[in-house]
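Morning!

This is the sequence you dropped in the shared folder:
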Amino acid sequence: MRILLIEDDAKTAEIILKGFQQAGFETCHAADGLDGLFKAKSALFDAAVIDVMLPKLNGFTVIEELRAAGLKLPIIVLSAKDSVESKITGLEKGGDDYLAKPFSMAELIARVHAQLRRASCAAETTVLTVEDLTLDLISRKVVRGGERIELQPLEYQLLEYLMRNKGRVVSKNTIMEHVWEYHFDTRTNIVESRVCRLREKIDKPFARKLIRTVRGFGYVLE
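The structure's back. Tokens below.
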């Protein structure tokens, strides 16, 4: 497995590179955003670990550029910021996971393995379908009733999770843990606001509503 590491701090990069090597990964390193973006577009990688605060081009911009270029590799965001807002930004820009510094090397390796497993499973099924709604896991194209629907990365991840669990009621807690992989304060309205945005695009323009709220528990797509 080939991993791209984009990290400007020499000491942190050295620790990560050594840990990945011991875990059996082949790793390529870039010390700034521009070089990292160039390397990501120039070679094939199975996953990327990208720091946010990078010289020349920040990590969020690098991720946006990679997604805009159509690269689907799993991306784990590294950041010294541990706020909910920063985590949401990283995921909405196109990251698949977020790890705050300082972190355990063992946890980073575990998260990389988890993302690689998820990518492998996704490759087995290329199109999810519920009624007249389809989601192409390869092109990330979402279509309902013949109409293309544009989704932000976080909206896409939420819809994918709901479609993979079609007909099954999923709680807000479960959504937070499986879509964002974080244990946010359940008193926040993060899930509600994202579901509301998704409904505006998936349900509002159509007579048949697919996303249903189960009061006191969560949501079901059916």
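Headline: The mean pLDDT is 87.

More detail when I'm at my desk.
O.
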